[in-house]
Design goal:
By secondary structure, the chain is an alpha/beta fold. It folds into two domains: about 220 residues, Aspartate Aminotransferase, domain 2, CATH 3.40.640.10; about 120 residues, Aspartate Aminotransferase, domain 1 (Alpha-Beta Complex). The protein is about 35% helix and about 15% strand. The protein contains twelve helices and 13 strands. The protein has a seven-stranded mixed sheet with strand order 1-9-8-5-4-2-3, sandwiched between helices. The longest helix has 18 residues. The radius of gyration is 20 Å and the shape is globular. The two termini are about 30 Å apart.
């Protein structure tokens, strides 16, 4: 049981969607079909429609979604992929899983997504793709990034793991580049009850190859045309996602309402609230910045408000990537020392939102 005196950082138990999820689970178990069946096929069609894409391909994780896109584009050893240093490390690890090298371009200090000028400076003859991350639910600055990709003949692959239903200048994320990678990790705006991911694209040839690659490279059962992966969205998770997808628009509206209340209530406080750059922001997270983060978190916890850090270490400074000899990313270094995420999720009540604001204002 959660502590009623505490504002928890997130709430993952099914609520208004509980009956729909229960029915979905019963339906799958009764069917006796658990991998690459009708639930996956129907979810792919429904999610593609929600994203304004032509195709969706369900895979095992959001990380696999990125890796399989790059592999389907024949990106691998000797190639470079430009990506931001501020994100979950999985975006860069997905690049490394192909044998390619992630190259880090620093972030814009206000938008907190990849800086298009820094990305342009990072292009070399080995660069094959740009991998912007739509971070915290806000799209990257796509217009200059698309121009950069076109100028150099690069594939633009969108990391949409935190950006379900997000738009950039009215355009749905995941549809502006060659493909978009989504995660359905339980904390995401559209979360499964375990791991899951999907690729969306308008390219039929790419979608066909992705379907082959996710399933061991098979064309028909036990006939492997190429060395694929074992990364398949299972029927149970697909059914859960189908049950939750109709709620996503309403949940997104609620996230935006909470964010608007936070922005109004936190004006004039000791923390900096990064400004929104697009009305399509879907607020997967609500970050604030303070150079006194340790004291800030301790103060909020004493007030019964949980917070988390997204993210405490820039990706290129992770030991797992220490062999890459990455360039300095001074803005990301600073942001990772100051950023702190406040609770924000659809079931957060108005009194809880007010309590978070009061706790921040008293810091």
């Amino acid at each position: 049981m959660s502590d009623p005196s505490r504002v928890v950082f997130n709430a993952l138990r099914p609520a208004e969607d509980a009956d729909a999820i229960a029915a979905a689970l019963v339906r799958v178990v009764a069917s006796g079909w658990y991998i690459l069946g009708p639930e996956v096929e129907q979810f792919e069609a429904e999610f593609a429609a929600a994203c304004h894409a032509t195709h969706a391909v369900g895979v095992g994780t959001g990380t696999d979604a990125i890796t399989l896109i790059l592999r389907a584009l024949d990106i691998g050893p000797g190639d470079e992929v430009i990506t931001p240093p501020l994100s979950a490390a999985y975006s860069a690890l997905a690049v490394m899983m192909t044998g390619a090298t992630p190259v880090f371009a620093d972030i814009d200090p206000q938008r907190l997504t990849i800086d298009p000028q820094a990305a342009a400076a990072a292009v070399t003859p080995r660069t094959r793709a740009l991998l912007p991350v739509h971070l915290y639910g806000q799209s990257a600055d796509m217009t200059p990034l698309l121009a950069l990709a076109e100028r150099h003949g690069l594939a633009l692959v969108e990391d949409c793991a935190q950006a379900h239903l997000c738009t950039s200048e009215g355009r749905p994320v995941g549809t502006m580049g060659i493909a978009g990678a989504f995660s359905f990790y339980p904390t995401k705006n559209l979360g499964a009850l375990g791991d899951g991911g999907a690729v969306v694209t308008r390219d039929a040839t790419l979608a066909q190859r992705l379907r082959r690659l996710r399933n061991g490279g098979q064309t028909t059962r036990y006939h492997h045309e190429e060395a694929g992966a074992n990364s398949r969205l299972d029927e149970i998770q697909a059914a859960v996602l189908r049950a939750r997808l109709p709620y996503l628009a309403g949940w997104t509206t609620r996230r935006r309402q909470i964010a608007q209340t936070y922005r109004a209530g936190l004006t004039g406080t000791a923390v900096h609230v990064p400004p929104p750059y697009d009305d399509g922001h879907v607020y997967h997270l609500f970050p604030v910045l303070t150079p006194q983060r340790t004291a800030f978190q301790a103060h909020l916890l004493a007030q019964g408000v949980e917070t988390l850090i997204h993210y405490p270490v820039p990706i290129p400074r992770q030991p797992a990537l220490s062999s890459l000899h990455p360039r300095q990313c001074a803005v990301a270094d600073r942001i990772c020392g100051e950023v702190c995420s406040l609770p924000l999720y659809p079931s957060l009540s108005d009194p809880e939102v007010d309590r978070v604001i009061a706790s921040v204002r008293s810091f």
